């Protein structure tokens, strides 16, 4: 069962998402919150698999809520998906940098929304390569921190190759085929790279791959 926390300051939006999710046998909405602070507290109480968080809210917005969830070791299993009305913008990019697994536009088709929830619950990033390129091209402006820079130097050649393939949108099975290794070995390379780069999940790994220059937005 996929356990979902809804965080949005608009009751009508929350009700609509809940009604859609409650129709699914494998998804359960376990709590609702109207701002980021309340969302954080409910995340700590219920430990959801997915936190669907609106990016613009009073008290604490989606970026701050994402940052605080990502910084809490007790919430390491919570995958944050940002909800936005506007599509790609600087807020979305900052949310991804803060630790979000991806983002969804609120006018998404119901079947695509449900698919995205299931994808995020598996731990995969909701980031199409084309969207990532456009985000990185437009919004990368801050230098990498020293911890990330040091982590890049620690990556083995195979780990670097795996990170590049993740950034290009390949699944673990596709990475394994490309590198002629087992899916388990591919997953190991990715997990080790995430540890060395201090990436919370695949989405952050993708962002770091572009920011660091391992992958070029213009050529991928």
Any idea how many domains? 2
**Helix amount, in percent?**
40-55%
Question: Strand-residue fraction?
Answer: 5-15%
Looking at the structure, the CATH topology of the largest domain is Rossmann fold
The SSE order reads EHEHEHEHEHHHHHHH
- The averaged pLDDT comes out at 86
Number of strands: 5
Question: Which regions contain 5 or more consecutive residues with pLDDT less than 50?
Answer: none
Strand order of the largest sheet: 2-1-3-4-5
- Put simply, the count of helices is 11
Q: Rounded to an integer, what's the Rg over CA atoms?
A: 17 Å
- What is the terminal separation in angstroms? 36 Å
Biggest sheet statistics: 5 strands, parallel
**Sheet/helix structural class:** alpha/beta
Give me the CATH superfamily of the largest domain: Response regulator
Morphology: globular
CATH class of the largest domain: Alpha Beta
CATH architecture of the largest domain: 3-Layer(aba) Sandwich
Organism: Nocardia uniformis
GO molecular function: DNA binding
Protein name: Response regulator transcription factor
Keywords: DNA-binding, Phosphoprotein, Transcription, Transcription regulation
